[in-house]
Amino acid sequence: MRKLFTQLSLLTIFLLASCRGRGSVSTTKDIMDLVSPEPDPYQEIRLRMVESQIEARGISDPAVLTAMRTVPRHAFVPDDLIDDAYADSPLPIGYGQTISQPYIVALMTETLKIKPGQKVLEIGTGSGYQAAVLAEMDVDVYTIEIIPELASQAQDMLIRLGYANIHFLTGDGYFGWEEFAPFDRIIVTAAPDHLPQPLANQLAEGGRLVIPIGPVGFIQTLWLFEKLDGKLTATNLGGVRFVPLTGEH
Ligand code: SAM
User: Fold this and answer.
1) For the whole model, what pTM was predicted?
2) In a designed cystine with 143, which of 33, 102, 125, 178 is the match (CB 3.0 to 4.6 A)?
3) CA–CA separation, 212 vs 244, rounded Å?
């Protein structure tokens, strides 16, 4: 019995230690949750989603696939849509906004070619799902949302899930986040009708920026911009449909 108790105590200490960087664990309930975590009822459907929607369409970066298998997408959708969380489509998240289709999240993330330790700027926090996928890849995420209610909901959820490597700003992402520039990677998840110059300026040398560009309410083009020797080259990645980048810029 004493041996079992000692083993449980050691397990608890180990679990607490392995939570470093993912928020702090303070209450007895938190500790009990760690010792006997609830099974995730959506894990199987999430693994199927990655296989049938993501890998089947050619996404192969192991870090992207692992992140998509890990992040509980159902935590980022409204309660009444939870059963559709892993469907092959975007979903409404309120305020006229959407959480992007899983495949588009994976495609944009893979296109960034993320390396651990990089600084990634996301414009359009929305539900927080894309930020969580990025945060799973051992980078520092800086995310900006223009709708205060969405910004605060997403921040609450990401903190509850224990992500300590995401920095939040409420405001117009058109102007980027000068204080923390330059960024190794930039991802824009709402569509402007041109490349915002501040984002181009805040992209680091050797950096990659993925952005949908096009007219409001129509099909836009997904572009990859790469900065080499201070110059940007653009690659057309095909047609997409995003909500518009709003704001007073
Ligand atoms: N990345 C989000 C996710 O994982 O749920 C999806 C984003 S949704 C397609 C686009 C988001 O961009 C919306 O939440 C919208 O409010 C936000 N947005 C639109 N214009 C913006 C701007 N100028 N600055 C920051 N966010 C903006």
Assistant:
1) 0.87
2) 125
3) 9
